[in-house]
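>> received
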Amino acid sequence: MKITEKEVRYVANLANLELSEEEIARMAHDMDEILTHMDKLNELDTSGVEPMAQVLYEAEETATLRADEERPGLGSEKAVANAANSGAGFFKVPLVIER
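>> returned
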């Protein structure tokens, strides 16, 4: 196993997440599966494959992208109109980093 439950706990702590023992075990398994799959992908010979600049490489630059044109901003009043908590034109959110 590449990912241990100790490592999952460490990352969860960095992300300020509280995980149950069941979630920790599941995350360790899932993350291990992801890394195992990445190892399989790394075994593929990609030496003859040209790197792509973006997903739309074959479809020209404007395939599904709109023109990049300057437009007026939304404005803080409209931006916070549906906010659960706002004041002075800003979103108010609970303090999340306090250690």
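>> The radius of gyration is 22 Å.
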